[in-house]
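Researcher: Structure prediction, please.
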Amino acid sequence: MAQSATTPEASHPTTIPADTATERVNGGNLVYTEETEYSLLLGRETVLGRHYLGFTNVTDWDALRDTLAARGLDIGALYHLPQYEQ
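Model: Predicted structure follows.
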């Protein structure tokens, strides 16, 4: 397996949107929004899932790729989702 030392071509730096969250993982941070729904039973908002928007503070693209694969996410996201500036 070849080691990639450069940033994927499709990653264009942009500013992180205000209504997002980040999660520190091996190789950088994942940027996402949480999908929520109000539960009448619980009487509060509950998180249904996450929509991944991109990456920030990337230090190792290979480690980030492994993290996506371990979570069952499409590793093609490395090439299609943007890299945000912090």
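Model: The radius of gyration is 15 Å.
Researcher: Thanks, that helps.
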